[in-house]
Design a protein that fits this description.
The complex is a heterodimer of chains A (about 120) and B (about 280). With about 120 residues, chain A is mainly beta. Chain A has one domain: OB fold (Dihydrolipoamide Acetyltransferase, E2P), CATH 2.40.50. Chain A has 2 helices and 6 strands. Residues about 1-20 of chain A have low confidence and may be disordered. Chain B is of the alpha+beta class. Chain B folds into 2 domains: about 25-60, no CATH class; about 70-265, no CATH class. Chain B has helices spanning about 15-25, 30-45, 100-115, 130-135, and strands spanning about 70-75, 145-150, 150-155, 160-165, 185-190, 195-200, 215-225, 230-235, 245-255, 270, 280. Classes of the chains: A mainly beta (about 120), B alpha+beta (about 280).
Chain lengths: ~120, ~280
């Protein structure tokens, strides 16, 4: 069984659920938790709000990045809503990159057009 | 337990709900309750006095504990956030017989190697298959317990699983007990404790990769340890695979505010590769 463990930061913002793993159905060991990548002013191409993982697809120049998040329940606890992002939004993101070097990772923080920051992991 | 059929679960005398209620610490039982009530009512009429505000013997019959509601593991599961470390099974882990012990260690080592390399191996969870028994009770995501006459139902957020526990139900004959993810669960109350016995879990459902035989019996004991705290003690017996019963415990906190959302395993990004590893698919 490979499961994601809860993060202390997520717990701190929890009002409803006390402790859920970020994701449960596959390991996040494919992401490099020792490094953080940042992209600024990227365009949202897709925002998928569903179990087992919320994910965000962004475009930077000609490259498409896929960023995986936790479950909708976990995301809700830190202020995310199903309509927090929409295609065309310009956002900044920080994420744990994929260890295999491909354009993707696990989203950590998204800075929205209005300047608010949403923690994803 | 093999070969036993149409028999009540271990340690349980077949009994009805009324009998069970009357059994709970009230030696006088129904007869006493009726006599006490009739005496009280008739006496009140004869004396034409105001009815005293006191509980009747019937009202003092104890109901089963209320374990219904949404429950979350407490403290939360998997507090270690190092994604390159394999999650160990609960408790001290199983004491498997050989060669199963060596085979199990080999599988676990292979999984650990995959995590270390960033190439996790596929498992049932990645395939969005049910956790079955006892995995559903691990409560990775919240679970909801429903109490109805004759049945207790466990609904899990993860994969929208449903587990049915039939109360005071005899086990089906072996030929009628087709192996399944959750097996057949029969429960009964022993005072304030709900005891559930499960057999018939399919062999390819392996909790933390632990192999088992058709003879595996899982016994669960549930009891409230505080108004909103539930404790579960699990004991897994399998004379073919285990040297000793494998025991572990989980505790849960009731959450009266949380509403479980749906969990349909669509929109998956992960890709299961031909070598059994899992990687993230890119859009």
């Amino acid at each position: 069984m490979s499961k994601i463990r809860i993060r202390a930061g997520v717990l701190g913002a929890s009002l409803l659920a006390l402790g859920q793993p970020l994701a449960a159905h596959h390991s996040f060991s494919m992401f490099d938790q020792t490094r953080t990548s940042e992209l600024k002013g990227v365009s949202v191409a897709q925002f998928q709000w569903a179990n087992p993982h919320v994910f965000v697809v962004i475009k930077k120049d000609e490259t498409t990045y896929t960023l995986e998040c936790g479950s909708p329940s976990n995301m809700s606890k830190t202020g995310w809503k199903f309509n927090s992002l929409k295609p065309g939004d310009r956002i900044n993101v920080s994420f744990y990159p994929l260890r295999n070097g491909k354009p993707g990772g696990a989203l950590k923080v998204a800075t929205l057009p209005n300047g608010s920051k949403l923690d994803a992991w | 337990m093999r070969g036993e059929h149409q028999m009540p679960p271990k340690g349980q005398a077949k009994r009805g709900r009324t009998e069970q209620l009357m059994r709970l610490g009230h030696p006088g039982g129904l007869t006493f309750a009726l006599i006490a009530t009739l005496t009280w009512v008739c006496g009140g009429v004869a004396l034409a006095a105001p009815m005293p505000a006191r509980p009747t013997a019937v009202a003092s019959v104890k109901a089963e504990p209320d374990i219904s509601g949404v429950w979350e593991r407490y403290p939360g599961p998997f507090l270690d956030d190092d994604e390159t470390k394999l999650t160990p099974p609960p408790g001290k882990g199983p004491e498997l017989k050989e060669p199963y012990a060596s085979e199990w260690r080999a599988i676990r080592n292979k999984r650990q190697a995959g995590l270390t390399a960033g190439t996790p191996l596929v498992d049932a969870s990645t395939r969005c298959l049910p956790e079955g028994t006892p995995g559903i009770m691990e409560g990775i995501y919240p679970i909801q317990i429903l109490q109805n006459p004759g049945q207790i139902t466990v609904l899990a957020e993860l994969f929208m699983q449903t587990r049915r526990i039939y109360l005071d139900a005899p086990f089906p004959a072996p030929d009628d007990l087709a192996p399944s993810y959750f097996g057949f669960s029969s429960g009964h109350w022993e005072g304030d404790m709900l005891v559930v016995e499960t057999r018939g879990v399919q062999k390819d459902l392996q909790f933390y990769d632990i192999p088992h035989s058709d003879a595996m019996t899982i016994t669960e004991r549930y009891r409230l340890i505080a108004p909103d705290m539930l404790r579960l003690d699990v004991s897994v017996e399998d004379p073919e695979y285990l040297k000793t019963p494998y025991s572990f415990s989980w505790e849960y906190k009731r959450n009266r505010a949380y509403r479980i959302p749906e969990y349909v395993c669509d929109h998956r990004l992960d890709v299961i590769n031909s070598d059994g590893t899992v990687s993230m698919g890119l859009k």
